[in-house]
Design goal:
The protein is α+β, with helices and mostly antiparallel strands and about 280 residues long. It has two domains: about 140 residues; about 140 residues, Cathepsin D, subunit A, domain 1. The protein is built from eight helices and seven strands. Helix 3 packs across helix 4. The longest helix has 30 residues.
Protein backbone atom coordinates (compact mmCIF):
# COMPACT_ATOMS: atom_id res chain seq x y z
CA UNK A 1 0.00 0.00 0.00
CA UNK A 2 1.31 3.44 -0.96
CA UNK A 3 1.07 6.53 1.30
CA UNK A 4 2.02 10.12 0.57
CA UNK A 5 3.78 11.70 3.56
CA UNK A 6 4.06 15.51 3.63
CA UNK A 7 6.78 16.27 6.16
CA UNK A 8 6.03 20.01 6.24
CA UNK A 9 2.33 19.50 7.05
CA UNK A 10 3.24 16.83 9.60
CA UNK A 11 5.67 19.26 11.28
CA UNK A 12 3.19 22.17 11.43
CA UNK A 13 0.36 20.01 12.78
CA UNK A 14 2.58 18.56 15.52
CA UNK A 15 3.96 22.01 16.38
CA UNK A 16 0.44 23.36 16.81
CA UNK A 17 -0.77 20.40 18.86
CA UNK A 18 2.33 20.27 21.06
CA UNK A 19 2.09 24.01 21.78
CA UNK A 20 -1.50 23.71 22.99
CA UNK A 21 -0.72 20.61 25.07
CA UNK A 22 2.26 22.30 26.76
CA UNK A 23 0.24 25.44 27.52
CA UNK A 24 -2.37 23.30 29.30
CA UNK A 25 0.34 21.29 31.07
CA UNK A 26 1.91 24.47 32.40
CA UNK A 27 -1.49 25.61 33.68
CA UNK A 28 -2.05 22.32 35.51
CA UNK A 29 1.39 22.52 37.13
CA UNK A 30 0.69 26.12 38.20
CA UNK A 31 3.79 27.19 36.32
CA UNK A 32 4.61 30.74 35.34
CA UNK A 33 6.31 29.91 32.05
CA UNK A 34 5.70 32.35 29.23
CA UNK A 35 4.22 31.21 25.88
CA UNK A 36 7.62 31.31 24.16
CA UNK A 37 8.81 28.55 26.48
CA UNK A 38 5.86 26.38 25.40
CA UNK A 39 6.68 27.26 21.80
CA UNK A 40 10.30 26.18 22.36
CA UNK A 41 9.18 22.83 23.79
CA UNK A 42 6.67 22.36 20.97
CA UNK A 43 9.32 23.19 18.38
CA UNK A 44 11.65 20.57 19.87
CA UNK A 45 8.85 17.99 19.93
CA UNK A 46 7.65 18.65 16.38
CA UNK A 47 11.19 18.69 15.00
CA UNK A 48 12.11 15.52 16.86
CA UNK A 49 9.09 13.47 15.75
CA UNK A 50 9.46 14.72 12.17
CA UNK A 51 13.12 13.67 12.03
CA UNK A 52 12.21 10.36 13.62
CA UNK A 53 9.68 9.51 10.88
CA UNK A 54 11.95 10.84 8.16
CA UNK A 55 15.17 9.09 9.17
CA UNK A 56 13.97 5.86 10.82
CA UNK A 57 14.50 2.75 8.75
CA UNK A 58 11.92 0.78 10.71
CA UNK A 59 8.89 2.24 12.50
CA UNK A 60 6.88 0.16 14.93
CA UNK A 61 4.85 0.63 18.11
CA UNK A 62 7.78 -0.03 20.46
CA UNK A 63 10.25 2.48 19.08
CA UNK A 64 7.52 5.11 18.64
CA UNK A 65 6.50 4.66 22.29
CA UNK A 66 10.08 4.87 23.59
CA UNK A 67 10.82 7.94 21.49
CA UNK A 68 7.56 9.64 22.52
CA UNK A 69 8.22 9.11 26.24
CA UNK A 70 11.74 10.53 25.97
CA UNK A 71 10.53 13.44 23.88
CA UNK A 72 7.76 14.18 26.41
CA UNK A 73 10.30 14.57 29.22
CA UNK A 74 12.36 16.95 27.07
CA UNK A 75 9.33 19.03 26.06
CA UNK A 76 8.00 19.39 29.62
CA UNK A 77 11.45 20.32 30.90
CA UNK A 78 11.88 22.99 28.21
CA UNK A 79 8.42 24.40 28.93
CA UNK A 80 7.97 24.26 32.71
CA UNK A 81 11.55 23.78 33.97
CA UNK A 82 10.46 21.73 37.02
CA UNK A 83 12.91 21.80 39.94
CA UNK A 84 12.33 18.23 41.12
CA UNK A 85 12.00 14.86 39.43
CA UNK A 86 8.55 14.41 40.96
CA UNK A 87 7.32 17.60 39.31
CA UNK A 88 8.83 16.54 35.98
CA UNK A 89 7.08 13.17 36.15
CA UNK A 90 3.79 14.87 37.05
CA UNK A 91 4.23 17.18 34.07
CA UNK A 92 4.83 14.27 31.68
CA UNK A 93 1.76 12.44 32.98
CA UNK A 94 -0.30 15.62 32.62
CA UNK A 95 1.06 16.08 29.10
CA UNK A 96 0.03 12.57 28.07
CA UNK A 97 -3.36 12.91 29.75
CA UNK A 98 -4.10 16.16 27.92
CA UNK A 99 -2.95 14.62 24.64
CA UNK A 100 -5.38 11.73 25.07
CA UNK A 101 -8.24 14.09 25.98
CA UNK A 102 -7.48 16.42 23.10
CA UNK A 103 -7.23 13.50 20.68
CA UNK A 104 -10.43 12.01 22.09
CA UNK A 105 -12.33 15.22 21.42
CA UNK A 106 -11.10 15.21 17.82
CA UNK A 107 -11.99 11.54 17.23
CA UNK A 108 -15.45 12.12 18.70
CA UNK A 109 -16.29 14.41 15.78
CA UNK A 110 -17.78 13.11 12.51
CA UNK A 111 -15.13 11.99 9.96
CA UNK A 112 -16.08 14.68 7.47
CA UNK A 113 -15.53 17.44 10.03
CA UNK A 114 -11.75 16.92 10.02
CA UNK A 115 -11.10 17.48 6.31
CA UNK A 116 -8.98 20.46 5.46
CA UNK A 117 -6.07 21.91 7.44
CA UNK A 118 -7.96 25.10 8.34
CA UNK A 119 -10.92 23.14 9.68
CA UNK A 120 -8.52 20.92 11.63
CA UNK A 121 -6.86 23.93 13.31
CA UNK A 122 -10.24 25.47 14.13
CA UNK A 123 -11.57 22.27 15.70
CA UNK A 124 -8.33 21.68 17.61
CA UNK A 125 -8.25 25.22 18.96
CA UNK A 126 -11.88 24.90 20.06
CA UNK A 127 -11.06 21.63 21.82
CA UNK A 128 -8.13 23.41 23.52
CA UNK A 129 -10.42 26.09 24.92
CA UNK A 130 -12.86 23.47 26.15
CA UNK A 131 -10.07 21.74 28.11
CA UNK A 132 -8.61 25.07 29.25
CA UNK A 133 -11.97 26.19 30.62
CA UNK A 134 -12.42 22.83 32.35
CA UNK A 135 -8.98 23.04 33.99
CA UNK A 136 -9.58 26.60 35.20
CA UNK A 137 -12.98 25.66 36.60
CA UNK A 138 -11.54 22.60 38.36
CA UNK A 139 -8.69 24.62 39.88
CA UNK A 140 -11.13 27.31 41.01
CA UNK A 141 -13.41 24.82 42.75
CA UNK A 142 -10.46 22.94 44.22
CA UNK A 143 -8.81 26.18 45.32
CA UNK A 144 -11.84 27.20 47.37
CA UNK A 145 -11.39 24.09 49.48
CA UNK A 146 -7.58 23.95 49.48
CA UNK A 147 -7.25 27.53 50.76
CA UNK A 148 -8.55 26.39 54.14
CA UNK A 149 -6.11 24.82 56.56
CA UNK A 150 -5.77 23.71 60.15
CA UNK A 151 -3.55 25.84 62.38
CA UNK A 152 -2.14 25.37 65.90
CA UNK A 153 -0.80 28.43 67.72
CA UNK A 154 1.36 28.16 70.85
CA UNK A 155 2.49 30.93 73.17
CA UNK A 156 3.27 31.18 76.88
CA UNK A 157 2.60 27.49 77.42
CA UNK A 158 -0.92 27.80 75.95
CA UNK A 159 -2.08 26.15 72.75
CA UNK A 160 -5.17 26.74 70.59
CA UNK A 161 -6.39 25.26 67.32
CA UNK A 162 -7.64 27.64 64.64
CA UNK A 163 -9.26 27.51 61.22
CA UNK A 164 -6.87 29.18 58.79
CA UNK A 165 -7.30 30.83 55.42
CA UNK A 166 -4.43 31.07 52.93
CA UNK A 167 -4.76 34.56 51.51
CA UNK A 168 -2.59 35.42 48.50
CA UNK A 169 -3.38 39.08 49.15
CA UNK A 170 -1.64 38.99 52.52
CA UNK A 171 1.81 40.38 51.72
CA UNK A 172 2.56 41.75 55.19
CA UNK A 173 6.15 41.36 56.34
CA UNK A 174 7.45 42.13 59.82
CA UNK A 175 9.99 44.95 59.48
CA UNK A 176 11.83 43.83 62.63
CA UNK A 177 12.34 40.16 61.78
CA UNK A 178 11.64 39.98 58.03
CA UNK A 179 9.13 37.18 58.63
CA UNK A 180 5.68 37.04 56.99
CA UNK A 181 2.83 38.22 59.20
CA UNK A 182 -0.31 36.20 59.87
CA UNK A 183 -3.41 38.03 61.11
CA UNK A 184 -5.91 36.90 63.74
CA UNK A 185 -8.50 38.52 65.97
CA UNK A 186 -7.03 40.25 69.01
CA UNK A 187 -9.71 38.87 71.33
CA UNK A 188 -8.87 35.31 70.29
CA UNK A 189 -5.17 35.81 70.96
CA UNK A 190 -5.78 37.59 74.28
CA UNK A 191 -7.65 34.54 75.53
CA UNK A 192 -4.30 32.71 75.64
CA UNK A 193 -2.68 35.31 77.92
CA UNK A 194 -2.66 35.93 81.65
CA UNK A 195 -4.57 38.92 83.02
CA UNK A 196 -1.46 41.11 83.36
CA UNK A 197 -0.41 40.35 79.83
CA UNK A 198 -3.91 41.07 78.53
CA UNK A 199 -3.94 44.48 80.24
CA UNK A 200 -0.44 45.29 78.98
CA UNK A 201 -1.39 44.33 75.42
CA UNK A 202 -4.56 46.42 75.54
CA UNK A 203 -2.58 49.42 76.80
CA UNK A 204 -0.01 48.97 74.06
CA UNK A 205 -2.68 48.78 71.33
CA UNK A 206 -4.25 51.95 72.72
CA UNK A 207 -0.79 53.59 72.68
CA UNK A 208 -0.83 54.06 76.44
CA UNK A 209 1.85 53.37 79.02
CA UNK A 210 2.09 49.71 79.93
CA UNK A 211 4.26 47.44 82.02
CA UNK A 212 6.97 46.36 79.60
CA UNK A 213 7.84 43.37 81.80
CA UNK A 214 4.32 41.97 81.48
CA UNK A 215 4.47 42.01 77.66
CA UNK A 216 8.18 41.37 77.22
CA UNK A 217 7.74 37.85 75.80
CA UNK A 218 5.22 39.11 73.23
CA UNK A 219 7.60 41.77 71.83
CA UNK A 220 4.73 44.06 70.77
CA UNK A 221 5.32 46.52 67.94
CA UNK A 222 3.35 48.30 65.24
CA UNK A 223 3.43 47.56 61.53
CA UNK A 224 2.46 50.15 58.94
CA UNK A 225 0.17 48.66 56.30
CA UNK A 226 -1.95 49.68 53.33
CA UNK A 227 -5.33 48.14 52.55
CA UNK A 228 -8.48 48.86 50.59
CA UNK A 229 -10.08 51.91 52.18
CA UNK A 230 -7.02 52.52 54.38
CA UNK A 231 -4.01 54.19 52.80
CA UNK A 232 -1.89 54.09 55.96
CA UNK A 233 -2.79 52.09 59.05
CA UNK A 234 -1.07 50.66 62.13
CA UNK A 235 -1.38 46.97 62.91
CA UNK A 236 -0.31 45.67 66.33
CA UNK A 237 2.07 42.73 65.89
CA UNK A 238 3.22 40.28 68.56
CA UNK A 239 5.50 37.25 68.57
CA UNK A 240 4.06 33.78 69.23
CA UNK A 241 6.29 30.91 70.34
CA UNK A 242 5.22 28.53 67.58
CA UNK A 243 2.87 28.34 64.61
CA UNK A 244 2.01 24.99 63.02
CA UNK A 245 0.12 24.78 59.71
CA UNK A 246 -1.37 21.59 58.28
CA UNK A 247 -1.88 22.04 54.55
CA UNK A 248 -2.19 19.48 51.71
CA UNK A 249 -0.81 16.68 53.87
CA UNK A 250 2.20 18.73 54.95
CA UNK A 251 3.11 20.03 58.40
CA UNK A 252 4.78 23.45 58.37
CA UNK A 253 6.29 24.73 61.62
CA UNK A 254 7.39 28.31 62.26
CA UNK A 255 9.01 29.38 65.52
CA UNK A 256 8.80 32.97 66.78
CA UNK A 257 5.94 33.67 64.38
CA UNK A 258 4.79 37.24 63.74
CA UNK A 259 1.06 37.60 64.48
CA UNK A 260 -0.91 40.71 63.56
CA UNK A 261 -3.89 41.49 65.79
CA UNK A 262 -7.15 42.74 64.32
CA UNK A 263 -9.87 44.47 66.36
CA UNK A 264 -12.48 43.66 63.73
CA UNK A 265 -13.79 40.11 63.12
CA UNK A 266 -12.02 38.40 60.23
CA UNK A 267 -15.01 36.28 59.18
CA UNK A 268 -18.60 37.21 60.09
CA UNK A 269 -19.65 33.55 60.01
CA UNK A 270 -16.55 32.11 61.67
CA UNK A 271 -15.36 30.26 58.57
CA UNK A 272 -11.76 31.11 59.44
CA UNK A 273 -9.98 32.55 62.47
CA UNK A 274 -6.50 33.37 61.18
CA UNK A 275 -5.22 34.62 57.83
CA UNK A 276 -2.06 32.83 56.77
CA UNK A 277 0.54 34.46 54.57
CA UNK A 278 1.39 32.29 51.52
CA UNK A 279 5.04 33.25 52.00
CA UNK A 280 5.16 30.82 54.93
CA UNK A 281 4.49 27.91 52.57
CA UNK A 282 7.57 28.85 50.54
CA UNK A 283 9.84 29.25 53.55
Amino acid sequence: MYYEFYIDVFFVVNLFMDFLVLCLTNRILRGSAKPWRALLGALAGALGISLFFWLSKEINTVNILIFSIGMSFAMVWLDCRPCRGKELLAGVLACWGISFLLGGLLYALPPRAGKGILIFFTITFTAYWILNTGIRLFKYLKGKAVLRCRVILETGGQKIELKGLLDTGNCLTDTDTGKPVCVMEKSRFSGMLEKKQQDALESFCAMEDFGEGDAENLKPRFLIYTALGCERGLLPVVTADRLVIFWEGKKICLSQAAIGLSDAPLSPYGKFEIIISPKILDS
